[in-house]
Design a protein that fits this description.
This protein is an alpha+beta fold. It folds into 2 domains: about 5-220, Hypothetical protein, domain 2 (Endonuclease III, domain 1, Orthogonal Bundle), CATH 1.10.340.30; about 230-360, Alpha-Beta Complex (Nucleoside Triphosphate Pyrophosphohydrolase), CATH 3.90.79. Helices cover about 45% and strands about 10% of the residues. The chain contains 16 helices and 6 strands. The chain has helices at about 5-15, 30-40, 45-60, 65-70, 70-80, 85-100, 110, 120-130, 140-150, 160-165, 175, 180-190, 210-215, 275-280, 320, 340-360; strands at about 230-240, 245-250, 260-265, 290-300, 305-315, 325-330. The strands form 2 sheets. It has a 3-stranded mixed beta sheet. Strands 3-2-6 form a 3-stranded antiparallel beta sheet, with no helix packed on it. β4 and β5 form a beta hairpin. The protein is elongated, with a radius of gyration of 24 Å. The chain starts with 5 loop residues before the first helix and ends with a helix. The relative contact order is 0.11. The model has no long low-confidence stretch (mean pLDDT about 95).
Length: about 350
């Protein structure tokens, strides 16, 4: 195999680099806070989805100190919709740790001691923000490397092999002199040329060095183990509003899935569908409940089907509110509701609206 040219990649990057809100303009030093925030947000999420959240976060929390001193509820509310909510809690904890130590450390090993920063994120921050000559290996870089070396071992088993091979991509003089640009060039190459399906090999700056391209296997790489079917879980949640326009909400436990996020009350999620009588035993108030609809949501390890029951009541008693809290419907948009609960709220509101329209 011909060693891929760092000059060719950087020359391509200088002409085709993406304009992204967290990137420093040419010649400027990247802000570690911006780099870190974007990298955490980009985990398991697309660039297109992240941009509005990133801009909203910077408006709310313009500095790492502003983020560190914000209430966790505000951080979770700003994150709501991005998913993988442990990232938001770690983001908040990491900001506090960074402020406590007086700023972001520059070295990979020190970055890895911070909450929520793993091998890839530490390398990305070190390379992009501090010019450390390391190669951050994300999904884009894994794909590029598997094709360059025509590596057929399936993921996830191939990860160590691909990481070791990727370490040698930046050994040229230009890559060593421009580690921030080199790392971002790899990301851009994977995002715009060496894409998962139908890679644009004809315009790739590394096409003459790519063993996968020469073998005709590039488009099939990296190989992946067959996906295992997700199990399905079932739940019933209750959307209830009083005459004052307040909805009953509660917070999830501080640990576990969707920890500390806000939800409408409901049953546990289980492997079998809930019989109606058993589900109603978990209703937060006595009311005339009607089926508003079903919500389907996919998590990493399982799919979820939720029946949403909706009702109106005159007022909530203290016992009915219990450990929950009331919030005006008009303020739901700013609540720390995860995506699945936003779906449930939308279905509940629609169900009430339709039933009142029919009865009217």
């Amino acid at each position: 195999m011909i060693t891929p040219s760092d000059h060719a990649l950087l020359h391509w990057y200088d002409r085709h680099r993406r304009t992204l809100p967290w990137r420093a303009e040419g010649g400027r030093t990247p802000d570690p806070y911006h780099v870190w925030l974007s990298e955490i947000m980009l985990q398991q999420t697309t660039v297109t989805a992240v941009i509005p959240y990133y801009q909203k976060f910077l408006a709310l929390f313009p500095t790492v100190r502003a983020l560190a001193t914000a209430p966790q509820e505000q951080v979770l509310a700003a994150w709501a919709g991005l998913g993988y909510y442990a990232r938001a809690r770690n983001l908040h904890a990491c900001a506090q740790a960074v402020v406590a130590r007086g700023g972001f450390p520059a070295q990979v090993a020190e970055l890895r001691t911070l909450p929520g920063i793993g091998v890839y994120t530490a390398a990305a921050i070190a390379a992009i923000a501090f010019g450390v000559p390391v190669v951050p290996v994300d999904g884009n870089v894994e794909r590029i490397t598997a094709r360059l070396f025509d590596e057929h071992t399936p993921l996830p088993g191939a990860r160590k092999v691909l990481a070791r091979l990727a370490e040698g991509l930046n050994t040229g003089a230009e890559a060593q002199a421009r580690p921030s640009d080199f790392a971002q060039a790899l990301f851009d190459l994977g995002a715009s040329v060496c894409v998962p399906r139908t890679p644009a090999c004809g315009v790739c700056p590394w096409q003459t060095s790519c063993a996968g391209q020469a073998a005709g296997t590039a488009a099939t790489l990296p190989r992946k183990m067959p996906k295992v079917a997700r199990p399905v879980r079932h739940g019933v949640h209750f959307f209830v509003v009083d005459e004052a326009g307040q909805v009953l909400l509660q917070r999830r436990p501080e640990t576990g899935l969707l920890a500390a996020m806000t939800e409408i009350p409901g049953t546990p999620w289980q492997a079998t569908a809930w019989p109606e009588a058993e589900a109603l035993a978990s209703a937060p108030v006595r009311a005339v409940w009607q089926k508003a609809g079903m919500v389907r949501h996919v998590f990493t390890h399982f799919s979820l089907e939720i029946i949403v029951l909706a009702a109106r009541v005159a007022r909530f008693g203290n016992a009915e509110v219990g450990q929950g809290f009331l919030l005006p419907v008009t303020r739901l948009q700013g609540a720390a509701l995860p995506s699945v609960m936003r779906k449930c709220v939308a279905v509940g509101m629609q169900g009430l609206s339709e039933s009142e329209s029919l009865s009217g």
